[in-house]
Specification:
alpha/beta, 5-stranded parallel beta sheet, 36% helix
Length: 339
């Protein structure tokens, strides 16, 4: 029997070029252009992208969703040495401020020592930083304007003493803007099984299956509600999710995020593969990104595997429950694309 995610990847591959009029105004047109002609391959098979034409040593932007293993990737790159890796530059904790040096490390962030790392001496970023970046204008088309965000990112790039790597969790739907304004940068996409990512986002909470998005606030550790509120202005389908189980909105955002990244990223990597064989996967990704591996001491990554052979999502709900919700979302997407 084919794995469930093959069906997910195949379901809409024949409809990628037909975006419906349900997405209003210019965001609809930008989104349609972003996916026009795209194919949606198996999301659990690492596939090389065309050879990069960007300059050697250019900035690398990591795009990943919350609880997708992005902190693990940050740790791997930080350990390797030839990078200045910035942890979640848009985070509301403002890692560039001195007061965050003693922020406790999340127990799940294996290998992380300080979120402030590489932000030393960057206190001047305070006059550029805008907390609205965390939950407003999460969709940015290529010709959008945000001079402060552009200057903020450029400052991080300019102040890096090694190849700059910015590990983002809030640029899923801003990739057209990033590509337009930082054309020399490479984009590294990290993704994870949506079911595993969902369970991880609950932090062990026992969430009843009857809970709706309207009741989800006590369980919303990773910004699902703010994202839903902001992006429903772009994706009409989200507007009807208030009384649905929160996994439905989570899964739709996962699908749309994955599609956007596959269109704009230079390389896409599954967390499950990275966690099982970090050296092999990073070597392959670096080759695609034209990152010079000479002099890298790969043995510093020994012991930094996070591979789990047994999934955790079956403890949350039966496969049939997940399949029903995911099928509802797939049908919703199909209607959006064919309206």
């Amino acid at each position: 029997m084919r794995p469930w995610y093959h069906a997910i990847a195949d379901k809409l591959s024949d409809a990628a070029s037909a975006m419906s009029a349900s997405l209003p105004g210019r965001p609809r047109k930008a989104w349609q252009a972003a996916i026009n002609g795209a194919r949606w391959p198996d999301p659990y098979h690492l596939k090389g992208t065309p050879e990069s034409t960007r300059a050697a040593g250019a900035a690398v932007f990591i795009t990943a969703r919350f609880r997708s293993g992005s902190t693990y990737l940050w740790t791997l790159l930080h350990r390797l040495g030839p990078f200045t890796v910035y942890y979640e530059p848009l985070h509301e904790r403002r890692w560039f401020e001195d007061g965050v040096r003693d922020v406790p490390i999340d127990a799940s962030h294996i290998g992380m020592t300080s979120y402030h790392t590489n932000y030393e001496g960057l206190e001047s970023l305070a006059h550029l930083y805008d907390e609205r970046w965390t939950s407003r204008r999460l969709f940015m088309e290529a010709d959008a304007t945000d001079r402060k965000l552009q200057a903020y990112i450029q400052t991080l790039i300019d102040r890096a003493d090694r190849q700059p790597v910015l590990q983002f969790n809030r640029v899923d739907f801003r990739l057209p803007w990033l590509r337009r304004n930082f054309s020399q940068a490479r984009i590294f996409h990290l993704y994870r099984s949506p079911r595993e990512q969902w369970v991880s986002s609950l932090r062990g909470e026992d969430l009843p299956l009857h809970v709706t998005l309207a009741d989800f606030k006590p369980f919303d550790y990773f910004y699902l509600l703010p994202w839903w509120r902001d992006l429903r202005r772009v994706f009409d389908a989200l507007r009807g999710y208030k009384h649905a189980h929160p996994y439905r909105a989570f899964y739709l955002l996962w699908r749309l995020s994955y599609l956007m990244a596959r269109q704009y990223a230079d390389v896409s990597v599954a967390y499950e593969q990275l966690a099982q064989a970090p050296v092999a996967i990073l070597r392959q990704a670096f080759a695609t990104l034209d990152i010079d591996c000479e002099g890298i001491a790969w043995d510093v990554l020994d012991g930094l595997t996070e591979y789990r052979s047994e999934p955790r999502w079956p403890a949350f709900a039966e496969p049939a429950w997940f399949e029903e919700v995911e099928q509802q979302v797939e049908e919703e997407l199909y209607r959006m694309l064919h309206a």
